Amino acid sequence: MALSTLSEFYQKHSGKLLLLTLLSFPVLFVKAQTLPANNDIETWLPRDSEVRANYEDFKRDFGVEELIVVGIENTSKDDVLVEAVCERLERLDCVRKCWSPGRMQAIMTSFGVDDVEAETRLKGLTLSQDGRLVGLICLLSPEGYGDRAKTVDAVTGVLEYCQLRGDQVRLAGAPVIVTELDRLGSEEENQKFFFITLLVCWGLLSYTTRQWQLSLALLGLTIWAIQLTLAGIHVAGGEMNFILSALSVMVMIFTLAVSIHFMHYYTAAPDDDDPLRQALKTAWKPCCLATLTTTIGLVSLAVSDILPVNQFGYAAAWGSVVALITGLGLTPALMTIWPPQAQCEEQGAAISSRLGDWISTHSKVVSLVTVTMIMVTCVGLLSIETKIDPLDFLPKNSKVLTDAQRVEAQLTNIDSIEAVVEFRDNDLPFTERLEKVREIEAVIAGHPAVRHTISSASFFPSEMPQNPFTLGRLLKRAESQREHNEYIADGERLWRISARISTSEGLSQHEIFEQLQARAEGLPVRFTGIAPMLNHAQQEIFRGFHESFLMAFLIITGVMVVSLRSWKTAMVAMIPNLTPICIVYGILGWVGMPVDIGMMMSGSIALGIAVDGTFHFLVHYQSQFNRGISSAQASREALRQTGGPIFKAALISSIGMLALTLSSFAPTARFGLLMCSLLIAALVGDLVLLPALLCLRPSRLRQHKSAASELAGPHRLPTTPEPAVLADRVA
Known about the structure:
By secondary structure, this protein is an alpha+beta fold. 66% of the residues lie in helices and 7% in strands. The chain has helices at residues 2-33, 50-62, 79-91, 101-110, 115-122, 142-146, 148-161, 174-184, 187-209, 212-235, 247-267, 275-299, 307-329, 331-337, 343-361, 363-379, 399-410, 430-445, 468-480, 509-519, 530-564, 567-591, 597-625, 631-657, 666-695, 700-703, 705-709, 723-730, and strands at 67-73, 95-99, 133-140, 169-172, 416-422, 450-454, 488-489, 494-501, 525-528.
């Protein structure tokens, strides 16, 4: 009765409902486009951990760690130009200090270091070995750190004013790389590729439905769902980041899947007096169950201590609910205006029926081959590697990439590990502190992955003057410059050693960090820094993702057991749900391709897609099986009814995803290719493996064979005694 009323509502008010949707679009669009972006490096750090606390203490004592290295091609050895640029850069509000080779050498010589020794110390740090590349080190102020893009623009403006352009100047450093990644990953850059994706999806939808108006309207609903999702995130106080950039694609895929399934159920009831009511009756259960399980799985990501992953969990769960509301709530309104044609659906059902017959006949072979393939690829999961290197995200011809490579090759590495030496004895003389710092610095510099170290000791001579008057003047000079010293804090209690590290030795930053801690065991030093913190965060992200994925798997299995009322069927159904994960990520492990965070988040979307197709198949299978037919017959019938829309939804979305591979931004291109592979792999699980496994399920006749065997005949039935005999017995 309720569905009939709902059908009547759509028949009467579809136009008004769609008009209201259209009128709300500008409001949602503005809200979605003004969603603030935040790719701040610190947001990726664990919020409540000892390593984060140590880093916050370091920032409080020594200031922000980030810097920009300006490499000037000084072929004419024009020191005046270099110093002029340095002075102009230091005047910027976003720069708290700018070091040039000349300034560093002047301080060293003032402390008694001879010119030759000073230049030797600067070679490979702020001077290339041939002297042709000069490095200026710009330390960012809190204002510069707060707005990196503005800082990079300001630095670039100064360089252009000084007539330094193109290959005459090299910029490197985290602010430069993050700014470029923000530009490449911005909505403006990715919208053109997303538009191509929508155009491809519209073409495929038009081909399958033979109705371009209906296809265009369906894509319009998809875009509306994306804007509603992003607007909701904005209202809730969320922010856009690299991970959430995948959200629009996820909502598009989920919405299209629901809409295509509903359209199929509508055309599958041509003889029904009210096909809309019948479609609502058939679609609501599998769609709601699929959304429920997908939402639970995505919310499980929110347990992560990494803020962007936490936000992705909630945002993606909200997006899956929006996809259900749009697909199941607004698609019926389109059906009343542009009823879909049944011809294409009949062709799809015929193909699915032939596929079902073939799978039923060869179910054992199909199951064996498919499960074997999954098990083999699963082995690759053990070898899967994770890697987050921002330089890998840049196009090969990017000037930012070539600049960073030139600076690292000729000057020094951008990544650093910071060591803080703490002196608890307040009465310890300055010279003894200096020698202790030098001793610890030598231990750190002895690690093969450490290219350079710099501390306050780097500005003093290797051997301090023995003459007390000379030593006194030197210490007095050092005292006068304490306010400008970047390497001593809290009086003279804390001393900083900055170690520039290289991962070319085959060690990760986290491994270098741990090895340095082991080397310095027993010494009064602690290590911190943004580079090892990010590497630690990377490990936490993937560890948390594995835990949340396992939690989602168990929860989804529980929901399937309750909804299907059969734990055996639920366990069988979960095997195909893992098929895309095992096949695609297993192959990545086999070929040794590292997985970044965006690629790992694609696994959540893949699980949602697989669960969606599985529920549509199983609801029809269970309905047929409960009528008393064999499992093989129920599997064939379910495949005939659902194979077409499952295949169409995956095919349209996967081909559309290929448009993202045209992007020069590596994460976007990888995401598009990976999603296409996952969608195709999900078809193997839903349309091949699941029907084959269910065909092997014992039929009800075989299940009750033992009970029936007890009734095997022939049996002699009792006869009624003759009347005379009966009378004698009574007597």
